[in-house]
Protein: Alpha/beta hydrolase
Amino acid sequence: MPEVIFTGPAGRLEGRYQPSSEKNAPIAIVLHPHPQFGGTMNNKIVYDLFYMFQKRDFTTLRFNFRGIGRSQGAFDHGTGELSDAAAALDWVQSLHPDSKTCWVAGYSFGSWIGMQLLMRRPEIEGFISIAPQPNIYDFSFLAPCPSSGLIIHGDADKVAPPKDVQGLVDKLHTQKGITITQKTLPGANHFFANDSALLLEECADYLDRRLAGELADPRPKRLR
Structure:
């Protein structure tokens, strides 16, 4: 897969990019965990999600947030990282102007950034949010959440306690016009240490069902 360098708001950003064989294929952006706690685009879960989308012929990108690897800049507590994600989507869209839809997948810190990107970009029609941390990050911006998606986490997660994730899911379930699918993996911790294969299996099953037209209410497209 090609290594790429593209321009972000704080300088160059380093990524891995795989275009689809179809001109109008959907785009998938995969966002990594917290940069100050070892998160990079080469995290195994991020890597596996990248290939999950690629196998389904999405145009797929994962990249390092500012200050990680060869990406320039410094950690910006989420604000700059959201701008990085928006710049990454802009970059892919500039290469694939015929792509009309997009998915975003994020793990931990990356899920918080991904959900914020979802609010900004009407072309994002689906999301996968792995081990979000509503106990640490404010998710109140999801008012309303504009797209259907999967929230998946472990019931032994001490970093993002299940009761906090459940509170987020319950709040989203009250919203009309979207379908939030929740999966709780028994015995899994925040790092899915012995459960990464099951995690990927659940994510792939969800994506396949969405691509088959399930698990989402038909909704009018938002205007860009």
User: Anything to note?
Assistant: DSSP finds five helices and eight strands in the chain. Strands lie at 3-8, 11-18, 27-31, 59-63, 102-107, 124-130, 148-154, 180-185.
